[in-house]
Specification:
Structural class: alpha+beta
Helix content: 25-40%
CATH superfamily of the largest domain: Reverse transcriptase/Diguanylate cyclase domain
Order of helices and strands: HHEHEEHEHHHHEEHHHEHEHHH
Shape: elongated
Low-confidence stretches: 1-11, 122-157, 160-200
Radius of gyration: 25 Å
CATH architecture of the largest domain: 2-Layer Sandwich
Mean pLDDT: 77
Strand order of the largest sheet: 2-3-1-4
Number of domains: 2
Strand content: 5-15%
């Protein structure tokens, strides 16, 4: 039998390292994608107190007191500890955070915490409220008994027990469609100050991988060079689009970028004016399965626009997106916001990296592959992203453009 003292000692001296916690997060994400359940990350930050024993050690003891045996506790970032909670939505996670904050206040620790949940539930039938789920259902403000599981100290309390009247927990369960998050629960703040209307950041954003320095440097160098070399082509194309049909020369559209953040993509206009308004009536004719819309004989495309698409000249203005850092030369092609939202849970991993001007799908697949295969190509690229691989894709893009491989 593991005693309270032995658990504390083991936990304090053998908390998971930051790299181990990163591995645990990736593992739980894979499990959540496969089994369609939620998990959460609760991050705790404690202010330094030079007059007392190590506040991190005291915080670790508090977390271990309230954590379940299945929860993973370790270092997250500098000055923070974190708990990974399998099979747990926002309600149970906020319950743990609330109890830890209460205990920290008793021990005079200045503590802040933040809760992230993966994935953001799409409807009222989110896993956080399904019967039998492995966490608390605290939607009843008068109860809050929820899931009970023995933790390491043998007191039998899970994340579902405790004060069900907490305003923080009521807010966490008030809108299952939109996970809500107090920016920080800080000891010493009034409840009214702590309960803001800040929208929760989903845990997906924790997995975001910013551009490596080598990749950003290559983007700036190559994109700048191409814009100078291709300036006559850009000007000639703009002139042809302008005189061929009425409407703006540059078409802009909101696309899903890094972490799902929207940005405006630039393209030479290839369709007649008002084409966006005609999309709903054509969506059922799409040649591409899944949420993406692609129609080979799209009646909205102008004669000049068809040539621009076949030669990929319409994409050249995206070199400006690359220079701005919204896109990279190589990466998953950015989808329109509504199409990105329609992706399955595992397919949204493509948002972990900056979208690109070209990608494996653009070179090898395009409309000849299913949407699932397209997404698998993107995920495969993310796993093996490196300098040589990017250069290889860029070199393969050149013949793909000149041979006018289908869009």
């Amino acid at each position: 039998m593991v005693t309270q003292h032995s658990r504390e000692t083991r936990g304090l001296h053998h908390l998971y390292t930051r790299h181990q916690m990163e591995f645990i997060l990736r593992r739980e994400r894979g499990r959540a994608d496969r089994h369609q359940h939620q998990f959460s990350l609760v991050v705790f930050h404690v202010a330094r107190d030079l007059t007392r024993a190590s506040p991190m050690m005291r915080l670790a003891r508090i977390i271990l007191d309230h954590a379940r045996a299945t929860d993973e506790i370790g270092h997250y970032r500098h000055g923070t500890l974190a708990a990974v909670l399998p099979n747990t939505g926002s309600a149970g996670s906020w319950h743990l955070a609330h109890r830890v904050c209460q205990s920290a206040q008793v021990k005079s620790l200045k503590l802040a915490c933040r809760v992230y949940t993966y994935p953001t539930p799409p409807s009222d039938d989110a896993p956080a409220n399904r019967p039998g789920s492995d966490h608390a259902d605290l939607s009843d403000p008068g109860g809050g008994n929820g899931h009970a599981e023995a933790n390491g100290n043998g007191n039998g309390n899970g994340h579902g027990n405790g004060n069900g009247n907490s305003a923080a927990m009521r807010r966490a369960t008030a809108a299952p469609q939109r996970e809500r998050l107090m920016p920080f629960v800080i000891q010493g703040m009034s409840q009214e100050m702590a309960e803001t209307d800040a929208l929760a950041e989903p845990l997906e954003r924790v997995f975001v991988r910013p551009l490596p320095r080598w990749k950003r440097a290559m983007d700036i160098l190559v994109a700048s060079l191409l814009m100078v070399v291709l300036l006559p082509v850009l000007l000639a194309t703009a002139l042809i689009v302008k005189i061929s049909s009425p409407g703006k020369v540059i078409f802009t559209q909101r696309r899903a970028g890094l972490g799902g953040k929207p940005f405006l993509i630039y393209k030479f206009r290839t369709m007649r004016h008002g084409a966006e308004d005609e999309l709903p009536s054509l969506r059922s004719l799409s040649d591409q399965d899944g949420p993406a819309f692609k129609l080979g004989d799209d009646p909205r495309i102008t004669r000049v626009g068809r040539f621009l698409r076949e030669t990929s000249l319409d994409e050249l203005p995206q070199l400006w997106n690359v220079l701005k850092g919204e896109m990279s030369l190589v990466g998953p092609r950015p989808l329109p916001m509504d199409e990105s939202t329609g992706c399955d849970q595992w397919q949204r991993r493509r948002l972990d990296v900056t979208p690109g001007l070209t990608c494996i799908w653009q070179v090898k697949g395009r409309s000849r592959v299913s949407f699932d295969e397209w997404m698998r190509m993107d995920v495969h690229y993310i796993r093996r992203r490196n300098f040589l691989h990017d250069v290889k894709i860029l070199l393969q893009t050149v013949p793909a453009v000149f041979l006018r491989r289908g869009r």
